[in-house]
Structures are given as structure tokens and as C-alpha cells.
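Inverse folding, one chain.
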């Protein structure tokens, strides 16, 4: 049992890291809040004084605001659906004994370590290019006209690229959960005559409930701020402009730091709403 002295020593040793972490989070947040109430144009006069809630009103009343929120939620929902469904299937496949199992697992997990910018460039130039891309050659081989993916199916393309990046993460978490399942339950169900589908639906899937909610929660937090893939591929065109990309345009392209900061506050609010909703789901599953 830890004594009062040991607990005090632990707090003292942890204090520098905690203070640094709080400063790392609070300083940018404070500056964002401060600039959101100002008209700050770095290349056109600098700090032009306080404007109150004018930046918030302008940002939310912009014709691009609600479409960007919708695009963000569509991308998040699409990526989550693909990564969870295929993550479960891949985890079940990788849990089976096979030759070179370790190498196969490494290859499946490898895309998660590729930088988003590099991944987007590879998909854009090697796969989705309408002239020299792999998909174009496949389409021509079957006698079909190649598709300009990033303009004709832009949202689906972004979801595909991001899903390819996050599928290994979901697979790894779900594979770990499957391996923690008591094999005796599956053996008993098999001896009782339960079909593979019944064993999956009544034993494996309920066991994966906590892992799935954790995957959804963690991925959602990161997917709400998706930017690099859109910047490299569509540049926010063709209905793929997310809230994060809209903030980027307001700050860098319009040189309006105050308006972009107001958008950043809206992004924080959206992330907290989604996180609170997901935390309730996670809490229910963890208490079950």
C-alpha cells in the first residue's frame, strides 16, 4: 500500500510533465479563443481590434459551413463503417493458423505507418489517375471507360483512401480482442452443433463489443480533423471540403486569422459533441 510520502513524491515527479502537457494544450486554445473575438489580418493591417461574436456569426452563416460539417460527418461515418466491418473480417482471417502468419500480419498493419500525405499521393497518382492509374488500366482491360475518381467519385475516393490508412489500426485492436476470447466457449458451441455463423453472432461479436466501441471512439477523434488527404487529392473541391479544410481556407487563403479561429472553436465544439455521444456508448458497453 502506498504511503502518503510516496504519493506526494509521485505527484512531485509527475508535476513537470503535467504542467508541460497543460501548457501545450491550454496556450493554443487560449490564443484561439482570443483571436476568435478579434479582426486579425496579418497581411492587411494586423490586429484591427475586437469584433465580439462577429467572427462566429460570419463563419456559421457562411454558405460553406453546413456543407463542410456534412462532408466531415459523411467521411467519418463512411470510414468507420468500412474499417469496423472489414476490420472484424480481417481479424477473424488473421486469427486462423496459416503459413507465414507473422509476415501476413505485418503486411496488413503496414499501411497504418504510412504518412497520410504519402498515402494520398500514392492513391492519387498510382491508382486513381484517369490516364495512367491502375484502376484506369483495369477498366480498359474490361472494355469500360476509365473514371476520373477524384472528380466523379470524390467523396467515395476520400473515404477509400482514409479507410485504407485506418483499417490496420482497427484490425489490430479487434485481432487482440479475438485472441483474448476463451476458446473453450467456441469449442463447446461447436460440439453442441452451432454453425459458424451462429458462433460468430452469439459469441464472437458480443465479445468484440468493447473493442469495436474503442476503435470507433479513437478513430472518430482523429477523423474529425482530417486534412492532408483532402489537401493532396481534391483540394476541397467536388464536395469534399471538411470543416478543418474550411478553417484552413479562411486562415491561409483569406488571411483572416480571427474568422479561422472562430471556425476552430466550432470544430472543438463539434468534436466534443461527437466524443460525448460516443463516450456514452462506450460507457454502456464497458459497464455491460
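Residues assigned per position:
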Amino acid at each position: 500500500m502506498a504511503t502518503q510520502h510516496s504519493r506526494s513524491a509521485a505527484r512531485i515527479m509527475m508535476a513537470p510533465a503535467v504542467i508541460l502537457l497543460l501548457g501545450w494544450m491550454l496556450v493554443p486554445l487560449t490564443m484561439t479563443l482570443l483571436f476568435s473575438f478579434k479582426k486579425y489580418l496579418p497581411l492587411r493591417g494586423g490586429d484591427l481590434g475586437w469584433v465580439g461574436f462577429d467572427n462566429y456569426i460570419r463563419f456559421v452563416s457562411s454558405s460553406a459551413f453546413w456543407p463542410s460539417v456534412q462532408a466531415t460527418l459523411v467521411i467519418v461515418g463512411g470510414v468507420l463503417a468500412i474499417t469496423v466491418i472489414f476490420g472484424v473480417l480481417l481479424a477473424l482471417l488473421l486469427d486462423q493458423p496459416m503459413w507465414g502468419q507473422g509476415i501476413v500480419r505485418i503486411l496488413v498493419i503496414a499501411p497504418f505507418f504510412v504518412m497520410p500525405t504519402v498515402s494520398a499521393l500514392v492513391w492519387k497518382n498510382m491508382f486513381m489517375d484517369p490516364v495512367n492509374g491502375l484502376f484506369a488500366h483495369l477498366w480498359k482491360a474490361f472494355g469500360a471507360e476509365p473514371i476520373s475518381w477524384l472528380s466523379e467519385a470524390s467523396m467515395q475516393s476520400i473515404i477509400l483512401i482514409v479507410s485504407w490508412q485506418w483499417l490496420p489500426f482497427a484490425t489490430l485492436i479487434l485481432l487482440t480482442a479475438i485472441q483474448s476470447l476463451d476458446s473453450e466457449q467456441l469449442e463447446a458451441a461447436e460440439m453442441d452443433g452451432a454453425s459458424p455463423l451462429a458462433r460468430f453472432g452469439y459469441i464472437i461479436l458480443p465479445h468484440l463489443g468493447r473493442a469495436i466501441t474503442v476503435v470507433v471512439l479513437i478513430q472518430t477523434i482523429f477523423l474529425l480533423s482530417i486534412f492532408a488527404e483532402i489537401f493532396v487529392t481534391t483540394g476541397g473541391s467536388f464536395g469534399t471540403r471538411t470543416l478543418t479544410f474550411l478553417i484552413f481556407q479562411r486562415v491561409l487563403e483569406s488571411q483572416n486569422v480571427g474568422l479561422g479561429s472562430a471556425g476552430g472553436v466550432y470544430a472543438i465544439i463539434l468534436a466534443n459533441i461527437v466524443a460525448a455521444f460516443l463516450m456514452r456508448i462506450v460507457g454502456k458497453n464497458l459497464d455491460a
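The first helix runs from residue 4 to 36. The mean pLDDT is 83.
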